[in-house]
Structure to design on (195 residues):
């Protein structure tokens, strides 16, 4: 099988159900999901499996789910078979809750950084937000699997959380945004009347 086909030389590409312009919103959406997947791979090669065995397993599963999400977004035909489900969103929420238990209370906005793994996971987070914005636009213009939009929304929260976990496990503090006041408060401080 040849890698190059020359079929895209005129600025068109194939989707499931036809051909569209390479800058079609559908192509932008699943192309950006593919970018997220590539950067998840980058994050994976930065982690130490001895320290992050759980995270390695979860990120590997997410790579498969992102491939499913891209496939869902690439469907423009009438007979669509979607793979991203509400159960996948629920699973991400459970992962976020579990990983969040490792993190110190969040009081200020944080900047991407700290450990190399944390920085890589923040790149995943911001690319996921971009993919989500494109899927929002796609959902407005064309029919697609709305569960992908929900999945990406939760996935960006997952990446934020595990970026913090990566710093915790590396013995590093989050890089806090120092120019603002504390914007997040723990329940304990609220109970004491502290603002």
């Amino acid at each position: 099988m040849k890698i190059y086909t020359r079929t895209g030389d005129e600025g068109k590409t194939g989707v499931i159900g036809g051909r569209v312009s390479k800058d079609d919103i559908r192509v932008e959406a699943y192309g950006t999901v593919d970018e997220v997947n590539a950067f998840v791979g980058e994050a994976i090669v930065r982690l130490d499996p001895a320290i992050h065995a759980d995270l390695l397993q979860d990120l590997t599963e997410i790579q498969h789910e992102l491939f499913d999400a891209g496939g869902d977004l690439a469907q423009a035909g009438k007979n669509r078979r979607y793979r991203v489900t509400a159960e996948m969103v629920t699973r991400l929420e459970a992962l976020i809750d579990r990983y969040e238990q490792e993190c110190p209370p969040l009081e200020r906005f944080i900047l991407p950084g700290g450990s190399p793994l944390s920085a890589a996971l923040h790149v995943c987070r911001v690319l996921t937000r971009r993919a989500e914005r494109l899927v929002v636009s796609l959902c407005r213009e064309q029919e697609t699997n709305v569960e992908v939009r929900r999945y990406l929304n939760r996935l960006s929260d997952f990446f934020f959380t595990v970026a913090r976990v990566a710093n915790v496990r590396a013995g590093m503090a989050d890089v806090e945004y120092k120019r603002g006041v504390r914007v997040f408060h723990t329940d304990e401080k609220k109970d004491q009347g502290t603002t």
Summary: Residues 2 and 84 are 30 Å apart (CA to CA). The mean pLDDT is 87. Residues 18-76+83-191 form a domain with the Hypothetical Protein Ta1238; Chain: A; fold (CATH 1.20.1200.10). The longest helix spans residues 116-141.
